[in-house]
Amino acid sequence: MMFGIINATKERLMRNRHLKWYRLDNAAKIFPSVMTSRMSAVFRISATLKSCVDAGILQKALENVIGRFPYYRVTLRSGLFWHYLQETDSVPRAREEFFDPCRKMNRREDGGFLFRVLYYRRKISVEFCHALTDGTGGVIFLKFLLAEYLRLRGVTAASGPGILSPEEIPDGEEFEDAYARYYKQNIPFPPEESRAFHVPGELIRPGSLNVRTGIVSLGQVLSAARSRGLTLTEFIVSVYIYSLQEFITSMPERQMRKLMAPIRIMVPVNLRKMYPSKTMRNFFLAVKPGVDPRLGFYTMDEITRIVYHYMRVEVDEKFINQQIARNIAGETNLVLRSVPLLLKGPIMKMIYNRGATSRHSGVVTNIGAVSLPAGISRHVERIEALPNPNPLTRVNVGVVSYNKWAYISFVSFLDEADIEKFFFRNLVKQGIRVRIESN
Amino acid sequence: MPYCSQCGVEVGVDADSCPLCNVPIQKFGEADAAGERPYPERYRDAPMTGGQKRLISWLAFTALFVTAFLVVLTVNLVLDGRITWGRYALAGIGAGWIYAGVLLLFIRRLWLVILLNFAVTTGFLALVDVFDGSLDWFLALGLPISGMATAATLLLALFARVFKKWPALLASTALFTAGVFCLGLDLLVSGYRGQVRISWSFIVMVSIYPIAVLLFFYHFFLRKRVDLKRFFHV
Hints:
The structure holds two protein chains of two kinds. Chain A is of the alpha+beta class. Chain A has helices at residues 2-18, 31-34, 55-66, 135-152, 178-181, 218-226, 232-249, 253-259, 300-314, 317-332, 334-337, 341-356, 374-377, 418-429, and strands at residues 21-23, 42-49, 74-78, 83-87, 94-96, 115-120, 123-129, 210-217, 263-270, 284-287, 290-291, 362-369, 380-386, 395-402, 405-412, 434-438. Chain A folds into two domains: 21-163, Chloramphenicol Acetyltransferase, CATH 3.30.559; 210-438, Chloramphenicol Acetyltransferase. Helices cover 36% and strands 22% of the residues of chain A. The interface between A and B is medium-sized, with 29 and 21 residues.
């Protein structure tokens, strides 16, 4: 029997030796160490079709599509010093949605993939762990999956610009860690920030997540933004900052004084727009516009002015490169590198929670306008995006615009919807019609 | 489309209350029930209370201890045919099981935990002593030392409760109690060896009492007058 076990292990090792493996990209490195059932590092992008999803066809489409994304057909493994991604020959399965969104990826579940495909009635959702890719990668994957699904359902015009084709061989650049490529050595790091305001409140139990989505007309919200000279993201960030400020000042005096701290919103920036990279892994960094309510109550006009100018200054290649330099320096630091993963994990967790997450009050991530070729878009009613939730900020926001509508989704660990209430009431005050859906 | 009269937002046709402010939604007539939930029915369990979690961990601990108990018992019986060395290990496992149980089940009642721990400790020491044949060191050392430790812990718990807002006073009294405990221990042990005298506890007291006195002095005389931040600023 002993021989049997030894032989089986040897065989497995021999087989694994031939499997390809990939380093995690610079932004992904931190996630496997900080993941918990609440801090799942999982985001969701979903598409609601006009007819019910056929599970069999979706599964077939997924099998056809996955070959085009070899860098997603991987499992997460632990090395002595770092986690890494290892190729797998398992087949991902499309499952019926049952649990709350953005549940943590489990290494023992369904082949240990770092993404999952779910369906519920007319909705197809893909959930990705941030160790694998960012929203851009997720959208490209979902678009291709939708196109393939519709093609198998007999839609003839299910292709077009922005949709990959199954025969294509993936470009080597899609695999790369783009941070490492555009990294400038020997430049000073960005300055440290202070601790930011965080929404207080008791967390709901691990594994559950409250989602409240506001559906607004893209035309109305864009004209409100443009009347102030802002982009959609800047407008939503401004309203969000204003709502957080209202929330703080609505508190009883004592609690208000305790909570007072700078409000800072993390806004991820897609770096593919700044650098010509085709990478399908993470390539984003964040800027953090905000105000300090300790200095007094800011009016909406003041906040929009601050956000407007801040974004024009900070979304800049040189400043962004400073951030890349800091992050890469963390990864290439010889001391940190030579610490075994077992010890590095808790260190990274501490750095992430105390150093990174505590510096912002929430996240507003705008996936942007998702455009689908007319042949596909005719069958797709809406696209939504849920950002990865975070137990420290409690509430995070994901925005997508598709077809004449903008979908503003709040994911929250709180049963009270105070922030959402202030936010959407402010939109209504600006003359924007809002429809709310929740899970 | 129904509206929330408070927030001014539209809500789904099947919504009974506003998802933002929980205000009930007024319904005009029977809306068409074609509303489709955007997410599946949520699967919720009532969360376990702290007490339930502790009870479950206690049961798990019990299973562990029972296994250890049976293993020791079997090994001893198989090797020697009767219980010999095993009784020390078994008494230890039993005591460990009661300690774990006391901590898990009564953690909210500190006084009870301290007193029960005293009972378990003295019981365990008495048993180990009796296993040797007769009670010799238990009455002279075991009982008084665990009694002193319990008294010191009770005193510390009392101080911690009363002096919660005065950290300097709390630290001072804690150091003082620790010094007295060491003195008692020193006297007892040296007495058991034949001659009552103060040896190592003197060094302990010399090193901690000045600090205790300083803290005491600071609390009563300096706290209100000296701003440490100003005094020690760099």
